[in-house]
Design a protein that fits this description.
Blueprint: E1 2-8, E2 13-21, H1 32-37, E3 45-56, H2 58-73, E4 77-81, H3 85-93, E5 101-103, H4 106-117
Parallel strand pairs: 2-3, 3-4, 4-5
Antiparallel strand pairs: 1-2
């Protein structure tokens, strides 16, 4: 699994998640968002492109839930977008679509975040 910054215009941060999001791939003692973004990571508005995420297991779901809560608690926002069918189905079966903020496309995710900024 690779998490990377794709673009940062100061207002919105576009990130990309590639590969399998599983217990084996998640670092045990590292906060990936803080590592990549910095100490104020959870205060940012982040669009996370998941189109190249092949698979998501329960540890991956847990990681997304913890990140979602940290963003919410610290005043930021995390929007997941462009989910492949396998990942989307896992989240829907677990009813995570009622908790996490999901969007079909990057444009739809951007509209959600722009609505927050007004």
């Amino acid at each position: 699994m690779q998490l990377s910054i794709h673009a940062d215009d100061g207002k919105f941060l576009r990130m990309r998640l590639v590969g399998r999001v599983t217990q084996k791939e998640l670092p045990a003692q590292e906060d990936l968002f803080v590592t990549h973004i910095g100490a104020d990571a959870y205060r940012r508005r982040v669009l996370l492109n998941m189109e190249d995420s092949e698979f998501l297991d329960s540890s991956g779901v847990s990681w997304l839930l913890v990140a979602h809560k940290r963003f919410r608690d610290q005043g930021g926002r995390l929007v997941l977008h462009s989910l492949p069918p396998m990942v989307s189905n896992v989240l829907k079966v677990l009813r995570m679509n009622q908790i996490l903020t999901l969007a079909e496309t990057e444009q739809a995710a951007l509209k959600l975040l722009e609505g927050d900024a007004t």
